[in-house]
Amino acid sequence: MKQKLIKRVGTLITLFILAVLPLRAATNTVLQLYANNILKITVEDGVWSNQEVFATKVSSALKGLASDGRRVFVGELGGASTAIREFDLEGNLIRTLAYVGESIEYMSISWDGKWVYTNLAPNYGGATTNAVVHRYNATTGEGGLFIPNTGTNELGEVLWKFQIHRGVTEDEFGNLWVSERSTGTLYKFNATDGSYLGKITSVGGIQGLYYHSADKKIYCTTSGSNTYIVDIINNTSLGKPITGTNTRLAITNIDGVFYSSDFTGGDVFAYDFENLTATTAYQFGITKACELITLPRTPLREKIGELLIAETVSNRVMRVAIDTGGGCSLEGRLFAGDNDVTYDNTPLRQPRGLAAYSNYVYVAEGVAGGRILKFSKWGTFKGVALDFSQSTYPGCVPAALAVTPDGQSLYVTDAHTIFIKGNGTTWSNVMTNGYLSVNSYGATVYKVNHGNHTASVFVNVNNLPVGNALIEPRGVAVDEYGNVYFTSWYNDPTKLYNANGGIYHYNSAGVMQAFVQIGNPSASYYDPIGNYHPPAGGISVGGPGIITAAYGNQDIFWTAAGGSMTSLVKLLDNNLAHTYLDVEVINGQLWYTDAARGSISRRSGDNANIVELTGLAAPTYMAFVEITGTEPPAEGTIMFIK
Known about the structure:
4-stranded antiparallel sheet, 3% helix, elongated, mainly beta
């Protein structure tokens, strides 16, 4: 009874303390650009403080800032070598997102965080044809010209013309707005294809733009004391002459208050649009501090999980953040491997197959006698599930992995090659394992009990029907009922390319249920839902299915799970003669690896794809893990005291 009373008193004390303490606003971070430096300032309850250097120039002088809440993109002012540099939120340079080759004037990011927009090459002295708008994919850096210098209609009438285009911003309705100071015009374009949608005139001296979703208005700085407020619903503008302000470029909002920095003095002003006045919020005492942004408190696209990618030739597994918009970012983080890291006294060797179950991830080493390592999904090493070199099958080269529905067992294929070419040649500067005439090939699917660290043959030539073959099984999958699906790249050991292979369907007892012949299949992936975004047009796809990449050009096919697999329908026509070793479906979006090109791509239609990530070292197999908070503490020992 005493314990219950103490607990209640403690609760009352806690509630009392919470009631007495004032509620504090969330802390905001502002980046202020001036000359060759970026300052980082903390803003809390309207108080600006804690100034520190965030970053300095990489090569050319800095111009333009944008952020998606995970990264900061910084533009450069200069000649043909200018670029957009990408920094993390601590100010560390991550990479060059894109080389631009023109002076950057102003930058912003799309509403969903997918695109970085930039205005290029304004001319303050007269007409120009160089002034344009570019956009770049915030993940891959791919992009370039989006809106040209000028546009006309079918009658030859000029719709827009850039000379001193100083601001660019996207609203939540898919419109892109570009300010043109030389003519006092705010232009409106389609943010999807860049088509012209209209304009708002008589906004003299217009410069920087900020879209505020709370009131569906764009706030526009000018070269004078006026600040324009544009109602994008009604396409009207209202000028607000603010006493005490002068030339300003960028404008931002923090907790309902708008701020800009003065170009000549560098101080930050807080606006009072009701009384048409401005007060000094922060004194820099520096000149040309013309741009500032508030970092999003939360990323524009929430992270839903991590796509783990085996980079076979670099002996590591990478983490890629996947967000709600289908975008991904490498974030420079390892899941497993790297220099001077060992697991049970041995480094990670040529990782291939990955399989995730609950809070665990299994990684197969693609070397003869390789191991299957067990990790938590946060990357903590949990032990060796099986060491083939110490088993009765020391010649196995583990490739694809799949975990059973109960999580008790793993299926692993024995496949020795990664690419098609061989004989000691290279493909995209990566050495390959070669043809049968040089090395050997795998011809077995094993079942591994990771609880007692044993392996057994699930399928090999001995339990295949007469006339069937199992050569280089590069993919394996298990459905929710325990059925196993695996591919055979070849069916003729004398013709190791463009020979008919196929997909096998076995039940959990090791009895074949179906086989469908298809040329050179690699991936085997079980999708329990079968609802794709964008939809698979013109074909009958729905419900649980098996996905494979097949034929010499590696198109991606789907067939219903659990049946005869006689109906193969195409999800994606790639028209590229590469080997896609693995696929993954995340929220209806289909991803696949391209080991030769070092990229991860995402299906965007029946005949279209988007390259989401490049620069990887031979990405082969993947696994997706959902974000469920931080890793629980290590399990301890329960002690009973009498």
